[in-house]
Structures are given as C-alpha cells and as structure tokens.
Amino acid sequence: MADMTVLLENVEKAHNLSAILRSCDAVGTLEAHVISNESKPLTFNSTAQGSQKWIKLRKHKSIDSAVERLKSMGFRLYGTSLDINSHDYRECDFCGPTAFVLGTEKWGLSDCAKSLVDESIFIPMRGMVQSLNVSVAAATLLFESLRQRQAAGIAPKNGEGLSKTLYKKYLFEWAYPEVAFWCKQQGRPYPELNDQGEITEKMPRTIRMKY
C-alpha cells in the first residue's frame, strides 16, 4: 500500500528496526521513513527476514523535514503518545493516507514530533507497563489500519493505488531479485514479463540460471 507508512524518530536498535520493516512488509506497505543519525548507520538483523530488501527506507535529517514531506504527500500523521489529549487508536479512522509516527525505544516521541503530528494516539494497556515495545506497537497499528481497509473493501489486492510503471517495477523486483540486481549493475531497464510472469527477453546464461 502506497498510502500507509511509518515514520520512526531515532529508532536505532537493529532488532526493533528489523521487526518494524517486517511488519511493514506483512501488511503490504511499500516504504518506511526514518530520522537518521549519519554517525550511526542503520543496521538490521535476522528478525527482518530480508524485508529490508523490499521496503524502501526513506531517510530524513530532521523530524521537521520528514513531517513536511509526508504532509505534502497527503498523509495524516498519528503520533504515539500518552498525553492527556491522546485518543484510543481503535477510535481512529486509518482508511485514508496514514503515517504512524513512533519514537525512540526509551523516551518515545520528542516534544517537537508531538507538536507536529495531526493526532496523538495510544494503545490501551491492562497491565503494569504503560506501553508496548516500539516494534510491537508499530505492528498493532499497521494491522489495525489494514483491518479497517479490508472491512471497508478498499485494501488493494492487485496493485491498486500504484502507477503502472511502479507496479511493474515492484513486481519484477519481487519475482526476480537476482535479475533486478544484475540490471541495476548494468544500468539497464528491467526486461518485460509476459502474462504468466515469465521474462520474455533472452538473458545471459549466468543470469538465466538464477531464475
């Protein structure tokens, strides 16, 4: 889904970042956004199960620039916070362009981020701990958004919401990752696929052996 995403503010632990991208992949989200500290390269672990290869990770230098970018794309931003004015996430409508803004593992969202989101939301807790791990919170929100869209009959099934060019690009990369990598190395466009999803162009033998 091109109109559902997450914005991560200083989420740096490899396990959490990997788990969030895996959840994004699971619900069909195409990309995620992150505030990135250039002095601390983003890392992933086996929790991602390779999802970092499929989910485009857009890096931003500040929360201000990230929010500005997402709002210019038409997203409504929901920030996770325990503020007095926050709403139960189950009472919100996530059927439109939705971006969930989640903060660092220890401190949550910064005051600046809280002031920039369109609506503050929280996930109710019944135990002694006040909040979920950031990756679990992200999964909960993403799947609630997907559930609402499925109930409304608007969850995409065949690439709806994507341009034909972008749909073909993602389809090829998902179906033939090795060939896609080779094409990028060669600086050449992806070959065409037929109605059965087969590559129509004759490829070099070393590449053909990979699919």
Please explain how this structure is put together:
This protein has two domains: 148 residues, Alpha/beta knot; 45 residues, no CATH class. It contains seven helices and seven strands, in the order βαββαβββαβαααα. The chain has a seven-stranded parallel sheet, sandwiched between helices. Helix 1 links the parallel strand 1 and strand 2. Helix 1 runs parallel beside helix 4 and helix 5 packs across helix 6. The two termini are 27 Å apart.
Helical fraction equals: 25-40%
In N-to-C order, the SSE pattern is EHEEHEEEHEHHHH
What's the CATH H-level superfamily name of the largest domain? SPOUT methyltransferase, trefoil knot domain
Radius of gyration: 19 Å
Biggest β-sheet, characterized? 7 strands, parallel
Head-to-tail CA distance between termini: 27 Å
- Name the quaternary structure: single chain
Q: How many domains make up the coordinates?
A: 2
CATH topology of the largest domain: the name is Alpha/beta knot
Structural class category: alpha/beta
Strand content: 15-25%
In CATH, the architecture of the largest domain is: 3-Layer(aba) Sandwich
Number of helices in the DSSP assignment: 7
